Amino acid sequence: MSTIVSSTPSAPPTPPTRPSRALRLVERAGNMLPHPFWLFGVLAVVLALASWLLASLGTTTTLPDGSVKAVRSLVSADGVQLIFGGVIDNFIAFPPLGTALVALLGVGLAEQAGLLRVGLRAAVSRVSPRWITFLLAFIGSAAHIAGDAGYIVLIPLGGLIFKSVGRSPILGIVVALVALSGGSAASPLLIPNDVIFAGLATAAAQTVDPQYVVTPTANIYFTLASSLLLSIVITLVVEFYLRRRMDLSVDADNKSKSRDSVKAGESDDSVSLTITDAERRGLRNAGLASAGYLFALVLAVLPHGSPLRGKGGALLDSTLLSSIAPLLALFLAVAGLAYGVTAGTIRNSADVPRLIGEGLKDMTPVIVLFFAVSQFLAYFKWTGIGELIAVNGAQALRDLNAPTPLIFMALLLLVSAMNFFITSGSAQLSLVGPIFIPMLMMLNIPPETTLALYRIADSCTNILTPVSPYFVLALGLIQNYRRSAGIGTLFSMTLPLSVAMFLAWSGLFFAWWALGVPLGPGAAVR
């Protein structure tokens, strides 16, 4: 990354408040959890012991088709062969791995060439003060396409933007953090997380139906509407509550900085609003290249006999939708290449694979996590414990005769609570997906619906937990403007936003479900 976040001065000690003490307890509890890589290792050991016990007891599961499946023990000759002999196949066959890597080839080129960073700056650099909050929030929802770069660029940029129009930079940082982290699963665009989530949901659903596939576009209608709703909610809470009721003052030495220096881009902040002529030309050519790519794609899909269509000219069950990852990668690569050549960040053909490789370095921690997840899920599926939990869990819910909305709300609250400690969306879905997706499938609730619920629960509490690296990033930036700011300061600002977003987003889902509106192409909500 070319963006450098400035160091923050240490805050003087202040008496801890009750919210601050509570948040510190959450922080300590979260820090006690092992890294997700080791967490899945521990779970694999627990699974091995559980499978050995259940297999020794002769535990079986009667599946919906009437067949009977016995629980198999990992502590057996066959289990050992799976553990050691299936390592490579388990990893290579893991659904999210290939699709995520392919999609991120394009993301890596566009990000390393500078397109995504400069595009974010340009998008918010000429915003009318009247619309500043809404547009910053909406751009934050779209910035997920840039991955971690979106957070690192837009959060400090939010403070600079608000400061440049005479508003509290603290509030700008909070708006950017909430839009990005609190709405991390809501975007008007197809983003890399959609590909990863679809692969994880597919792996979970196939424990019940081996032919079931959740596509990356499974929730696209819902996420588009969600991004608009959350932008409105953030705007209303900020304008009618936070800015009027919260202390957003900055330290005197920050107040004394002239507004002219901010307009000129000469600020102590880590980013600048200035767009050079070369960058401006690069953005223009990237836009033209993107439009040309989309036009060519539409032309390729229009003929009834197009190879991008499915059988009989279908669009829902088609090569187009099943190939979203490579098409998204190519789109971003074309735009990134056009930008880089024009702006001078790509000078020769050798720069292209080099930049792609640099971009994929950010994917390394995810690949390491995927290795652990893929092995655990292969063991989980092989033992038959997944079917045992799903069938018996679904039967217990039937026996309780709990209304479907109550089941949905229980899932929302449970995952939201877990999110305080496991902030990685893919890691948490890897944990809860193999349990809840099959269980709810037994109750005729589609995996796409469970995935939409997960998006809500996984997002809104991100902005409350100090375990999140982006919470820490935002706090450090706020301390640039107010040295005495602490965890409780940021928590008090994000809490009303988190609650409002959770209630509004959940309300949108229940209305969506009640009306029976599809969540995405070919993805029925019930």
Q: Which sequence of SSEs, written as H and E, runs from N to C?
A: HHEEHHHHHHHHHHHHHHHHHHHHHH
The count of helical stretches stands at 24
Biggest sheet strand line-up: 1-2
Low-confidence stretches: 1-14, 256-270
Short description:
The chain has about 525 residues and is mainly alpha-helical. It contains 24 helices and two strands. The radius of gyration is 24 Å and the shape is globular.
What does this molecule look like?
The longest helix has 29 residues. A hairpin with a 5-residue loop joins strand 1 and strand 2. The chain is built from 24 helices and 2 strands. The two termini are about 45 Å apart. It is globular, with a radius of gyration of 24 Å. A two-stranded antiparallel sheet has the order 1-2. It has about 525 residues and is mainly alpha-helical. The protein has a domain of about 325 residues. Helix 1 packs across helix 24 and helix 11 packs antiparallel against helix 24.
What attributes characterize this protein structure?
526 residues; mainly alpha; two-stranded antiparallel ribbon; 24 helices; globular
Show the helix and strand layout.
Layout: H1 18-32, H2 36-56, E1 60-62, E2 68-70, H3 77-85, H4 87-92, H5 95-113, H6 115-125, H7 132-142, H8 148-164, H9 169-182, H10 192-205, H11 220-245, H12 252-255, H13 259-263, H14 277-301, H15 319-322, H16 324-343, H17 351-360, H18 364-383, H19 385-400, H20 404-418, H21 425-441, H22 447-460, H23 469-481, H24 487-515
Antiparallel strand pairs: 1-2
Helix pairs in contact: 1-24, 2-18, 5-10, 5-16, 5-17, 6-8, 6-14, 7-9, 7-11, 8-9, 8-23, 9-11, 9-23, 10-21, 11-24, 14-16, 19-21, 20-22, 21-22, 22-24
